[in-house]
Amino acid sequence: MLTFTSPMFTLLLLLLLPTTIIAQPYKSADHYQLDCGSSSTTTTSDRIWDSDELSTFIPSNIATASFTSTPFRRDPSVPQTPYSTARIFNTSSFTYTFPVSEGPKFLRLYFYPATYSGLTPNQSFFSVSSNGYSLLTNFSAFLAASFMAETRSNAGADGPRVPNLVKEFIVYVKDTRNLTVTFAPSPNSYAFINGIEVVSMPKNMYFERSDLNHVGQTTGPIIQNNTALENMYRLNMGGRHLSGNEDTGMYRSWDPDNNYIYSAAIGLTPLYQDPIMYTTETPNYTAPELVYQTQRSMGNQSDKYNLTWILPVDSGFYYKLRLHFCNIIPQYTKRGQAVFTIFINNQTAEKEIDLFYLTQGTGYPVFKDYVVFVHDPDGSRRKQDMWVAMHPNHRSELYYDAYLNGLEAFKLSSEGSLASPNPEVSREYPPQRPSSPVIENQKSTPYATIIGGVVGGLVVLTILVLVAFLRTRVKHIGNVGDWPLKSPKSCHPSLPLAQCRRFSLEEVEVATCEFSDKCVIGRGGFGMVYKGYIDNATTVVAIKRLKKSSNQGFREFRTEIGFLSKLRHVQLVSLVGYCDDQGEMILVYDYMPNGTLQEHLYRSNNPPLSWKRRLHICIGAAKGLNYLHTGANRVIIHRDVKSTNILLDENWVAKLSDFGLSRLGPKDRSKNHVSTNSEGYLRVHGSGILPNGPTH
């Protein structure tokens, strides 16, 4: 008979625990670092950068196909290496060739958009390809860096006006055993590069993994050696920036997540000081210890909001997201104590994830991979926000928490291309395509500088005057406050550009069997609600079709999209998408199997709700309202809370719906007295609650 002290039991226990790995960091088979434009080898932070001019990786016509230059003025915050020199190409394409072993390689391109030999950075447009993949097309490093600076500035972070940037790609080298990188300037323009880095990685690091979770689809792409990837984000949640030297041998940089966390509700950032216990499933090269030793968790505010990050990405591509987790909270000692839900781009990626079940202990890391498609409604491949959100599951109310340690986001190539349009930036950074040929000149004259400055000043002044004139003619629409975005293909000129899917009328007709009466699940003064099936009948949704004739209906339609496309919370109904073809006003939501709260209170054949369930529903609705009032960037007043607008999912979780009458509250949260003058809304007044009109 086995006892708890027997050697047999001890052996069995050890077999059930993850195998701990103690090993040195990954040793890269191939590692090249080129300081482009430099004439000598430089060393910085224990890393050696070789001169590309002295290397064997460049073609023999280097002298005629390119020239070297230094930035006219380098911002002191920009590192000296490799940004002190650049190689310029303005006549023809130029190819670097690196001999490497077979397998996946990190390819990092270093850019510092500055004035080089009289060539201004906003004149530079070029394409980059590697081993048959199109990585960048008509790319402007100036616009890309300006967008990055704008994003950082909007988050309240400091930094140079136009910073340096690194574009990181993953290219799988097959039996050719060569990695080629070709730069091709656009017509009447020039290309440049400051540094190139090539680093090997383990073959199964990101490729050919069978543990991919497809979000919103039953199937999706398998990342094989015919796919190229672009790293969009690599974040260290709750921690500091980690340089390449602090990585696990592959010189990846990890950025803090502060610039991407949504709202003022940023949670807690605990620190774990014990060693991380790597395993065979999560080897020590997966991510640095410093990533797993810090995290962002919800803490004691978990009932008020989602833990949410917003990541601008290019639409029209699949993305691979790797989420890194490690239980570093000593109170979590058994299954079921910290169970939470993961949402990616308004879709449920994990309904219940119990990380203690996955890791079996404190200090054991684990990662989960997800693939999601970011829809491109109008074919422009413009930037849009991808949301990653977490919320505690009601099953784990003992601690009721959610957390994340690290995140990596990769764009997957589509038909051999990763290219996307240059991002749009504010008028502070006016993009200018060159209208005349660029002259190869390595020195600019003082006269050219003066003339350029005068002309540039006149252009900027003209733009500012024009903007000021136009802004006086714009009518501000107040229902969605600070979100008056527009949809390029909308039939309605002031429809918000939603961070959600835009359906065609044909798709909606297929989903509802051409609006068949058999699919109707609700009706009212607004129109009809249908039960529908999308994505080849794999996803069930609720489809609300508003009456075309109603002007009030369009205002509510616009407001609903404006709010729900910006809000994510377990107690708010999720907007899947919308359709505005041919004057239609159609909203597509997650389907709520248990209908509205009203259907279970009176005039119904449904069995009565237990008092415990009623209490949970009330608490859930209150949490949703509390999030609107305290968790979002601005106070949001719903103005139409009633039993018909509280929906119940398959688990009887209450979700607020119908935001057509909602308004933004004051920017100053201290002004907590808000009169809505709306029928059916309970108005907060002093310490009591006074009804403003009839209530339900």
UniProtKB/TrEMBL annotation:
Disordered: annotated segments: 418-438
Pfam families tied to this protein: Malectin_like, PK_Tyr_Ser-Thr
Membrane topology of this protein: Single-pass type I membrane protein
PROSITE patterns (UniProt xref): PROTEIN_KINASE_ATP, PROTEIN_KINASE_DOM, PROTEIN_KINASE_ST
Keywords for this protein: ATP-binding, Glycoprotein, Kinase, Membrane, Nucleotide-binding, Serine/threonine-protein kinase, Signal, Transferase, Transmembrane, Transmembrane helix
Recorded superkingdom: Eukaryota
GO CC terms: membrane
Signal sequence coordinates: 1-23
Name of the featured protein: Protein kinase domain-containing protein
Native organism: Deinandra increscens subsp. villosa
